Fold each of these.
Amino acid sequence: MGIKLSIEHLSKSFGGKPVLEDISFAVNDGEFLSILGASGCGKTTLLRILIGIEGFDGGTIYKDGKNISSAHPSDRGMGIVFQNYALFPNMTVLQNVMYALKFDPARREHARDIALDIIEKVGLGEQLNKKPHKLSGGQQQRVAIARTLALSPDIVLFDEPMSALDAANRLTLRREIKDIQSKFGITMIYVTHDQEEAFSMSERIMVMEGGKILQLDTPKEVYHHPANDFVHNFVTVHLEEKIRSIQESTGV
Ligand SMILES: Nc1ncnc2c1ncn2[C@@H]1O[C@H](COP(=O)(O)OP(=O)(O)O)[C@@H](O)[C@H]1O
Ligand SMILES: [Mg+2]
């Protein structure tokens, strides 16, 4: 398993205020990595820099060993799924997924076939001709994922994609995203402030606080061997309390 993406000594400040400080990490090919941290710790800024829609002050980004630090977003082979899926309300599922392909000369001709194939793979084959408002929040988010996958990225970034969903839809979508990952074998970087989400989905978790990486390890290691008091409280204590409250409410 090779290294897909490598970030070295990345730094970024806004108006003199450091937002990312000497960030270095690598993501393996085909890995599901979560970036876990409280609001304001720099997660969205980091994703925006990785896909190339935000500049940065120092550091280097390598993809497949190639320096892509100044590559145009459309040349990076990365897709992103945001919290607000922003589907076109007047278009069907099929039309929404085909839309992005129409602007891609290499894929335009086969747009319909590509879209049909991906919609089937994300489990929305039955919903092809429905408009977004006829779908659940989780289904709408899967349309957004299909739209991103249609452009054949080899890395997909997620920025808190569950935030707008209710609890039941969140649980379902967790499973579906994992399912989509195993079908497509794509490297995924998943940003969340939700400990359970990170722990239930990831091969490794990168815990951030105040623009710095505190720990990057498997869920098991982060839970049992938190790097410092912050990680201990933010992760271990939080999850233990969660388990205790489930035990108390169910009597298990
Ligand atoms: N365009 C911007 N201009 C100034 N400050 C910003 C801008 N974008 C983000 N910030 C600041 O950078 C910090 C990190 O923000 P963000 O990356 O959105 O964090 P997160 O996604 O973890 O909540 C916050 O303090 C935020 O206020
Ligand atoms: Mg954010």
Amino acid sequence: MKITGIRLTEVQGRLEHEGRFWEERLVRPVDVYADQRSEGPPPLARLSERVNRVTSIFLEVLTDGSLTGLSGPVGADQAWVIDRQLKGLVIGQDPLAIERIWDRLYRFAVHGRKGVVMQAISVIDCALWDLKGKWANAPVYQLLGGPMRDGLPAYASALGCSVRPDDAARRARELVDQGYTATKWFFRHGPGDGKAGMDLNITLTRALREAVGKDVDLMLDAWMSWDVPYLTQIAPALAEASPRWLEEPVLPDRIASYAEIRRRVPFPVAGGEHEYTRWGCKQLLDAGAVDVLQPDIYWAGGISELLKICALASTYDVQVVPHGHSTPATAHALFAQPAQLCPYIEYLVKWNEIHQLFFRQPLKPINGRIVPPDRPGMGMELDETKIEQRREVSS
Ligand SMILES: [Mg+2]
């Protein structure tokens, strides 16, 4: 079997939602600049009061047989890199020899070890695993040695939800009522917002802990936007809420700051969402920078690379809870990992409404758990009835 092409298709459909979909955005590192700080959450294209327009790009690996591999949605910048730079290296290859293809792409893209090119390699890798699962007529996790458990506890990640304390408390209680035993919330304020912003962050944290009670894991995410002095000041108040972890307190390159924060604060520190490959993650592990490592399968090198990162992290006794860009790809990888190493799967409650919109059978938690899908490959099939327009974006 040989790969004959990579097809990138942009599809459009509609997402029904009462009111504004993205209610709030998280704090960003660039918010130290006042003009950036005042920007609101990104609007979805709206067709009417209740209907939003969603546009996604999907990648298919085509072969000279009947098998194809699917992954996505893929970012437009990644699609461009795949079409213009990487496609030629993949065509003509044996699609089952995934390790060989990964290594060829990695050795070719020497400027792409981190960032958009590694994201592009990641989604090609995931499409190849989908194809291999279909070839074997088995779910991907079976090819990887799973399932190791009959369900993955999902933590509900509240990206895009309002962080007004009353709204957040109500939503957090709803998530617990839906069966989640853990939920993650995102701060809106950082060093640029002064003491008033810090007080709002603290008020939010207290409201959330009070809302969910003491037995639910509460995670907090600073999305790379704080620094060591800010952390030193806010840590005692956050500690009162006993967070399961504080995520990405500083920019990814500031590994020494991570380690310093981890020494200073009395709760676990998580990071690695914006790190790439086993070599990037190893730097965080060697520095003692994180208690929880969070590579994203669609960014850090695909399923093939996540397996290596998990093996590496296990030698440091550091847990891996991947960032949840793609729920299907992440679930298949985690069903082949032990619960002690990978205790949770992240489920972004709003993001998945967009990311899995075009799937015939979206993979969603039931009562806070994701159960192993039994369909071959990743089990991701596009639902033609949800696609209103399509166009090929590959050359
Ligand atoms: Mg995060």
